[in-house]
Amino acid sequence: MYRKLFDSLRQLLFPPTCRCCGRKLLETESFLCGDCMVELPLTMQCDHPHNNFVTKKFEDLDIDKGCCMFVYDKEHEYSNIVKDVKFGRDFRLGKYFGHTFGDMIDSSTEFEDIDFVIPVPLHWRRHYLRGYNQSEIIAKEIAISLDKELITKGITRIKSTHPQSRLKNTHERAENMKNAFRVDTPELFHEKHILIVDDVTTTGETIKSMIEALNSITPAPKISIATLAATH
Ligand SMILES: [Zn+2]
Fold first, then answer.
1. How far is the CA of 185 from the centre of ligand 1 (A)?
2. What domains lie within the chain, and their CATH numbers?
């Protein structure tokens, strides 16, 4: 009861606005106004997981499948969705988009053989400073939609890397992420098909480093990728 009262008061004092255009939202709208929702640059590729939108970033690593919800452009208003989840502590937004993306993946039969879902881990220091892992919020909702287990252990980010967005070129980004992960419990991944979840993928160097660590296991697991947003 108090929660409902609190929510009503908050809506009255701070009416929700669209994350993209800033327009006041109607009661029937969530996070984005109807116009921005219609224009959201969805990739519509969950049914085509061998698309070259996600998989082309990892073509030398033999991933099984890849999917992405929408196209990321840091100059575009839609990047606010990723930024608000990553830096703005907006858990409700992360849950909403994670759930929507999860339902899209679940509507495709291509991902039925996934054994478990695992978010890209943060280094403990960044996790401590931020207080949460934004990819875990998204991964948890995807796991619920797919009715699969969420795993948040077994692989650790051991290198405190510079934020990839501050590095100028692909070479610097690759060097930054080199040997950034350590597999702690290889047996957890034996003979498994795992779905790695990230919030946004640009050059893909973070996930590549994670895959390289997982590929060092014998036998290596089958790996697929779901990223909420990705650059072209
Ligand atoms: Zn809008």
1. 45
2. 9-39 (no CATH), 41-230 (3.40.50.2020)
Q: What is the pLDDT of residues 73-112, one digit of tens each?
A: 999 999 999 999 999 999 999 999 999 999 999 998 889 9
Q: What is the pLDDT of residue 164?
A: 66
Q: How far is the CA of 71 from the centre of ligand 1 (A)?
A: 17
**Residue where the block lists tokens 């948040």:** 152
pLDDT at 149 (0 to 100): 97
CA of 5 to the centre of ligand 1 (A): 27
Long-range pairs of 141-144 with CB within 8 A, sequence gap ≥ 24: 141/94, 141/95, 141/98, 141/99, 141/101, 141/102, 142/98, 142/101, 142/102, 142/105, 142/117, 142/195, 142/197, 142/226, 143/102, 143/116, 143/117, 144/99, 144/102
Q: At what angle do helices 91-106 and 134-146 cross, to 10 degrees?
A: 40
Are 111 and 145 spatial neighbours (Cβ–Cβ below 8 Å)? no
Q: Which residue has the higher pLDDT, 48 or 232?
A: 232
CA distances (Å), origin 229, targets 10, 59, 135, 200: 30, 18, 11, 5
Q: Are 181 and 156 within 8 A, CB to CB?
A: yes
pLDDT at 217 over 80: yes
Q: Are 185 and 213 in contact (CB under 8 A)?
A: no
Tokens (6 digits) for 185? 């419990």
pLDDT at 7: 64
Calculate how far, in angstroms, residue 93's C-alpha sits from the geometric centre of ligand 1: 15
Task: Look at residues 4, 35, 6 and name the one whose alpha carbon lies nearest to residue 18.
Answer: 35
For residues 193-217, average pLDDT: 94
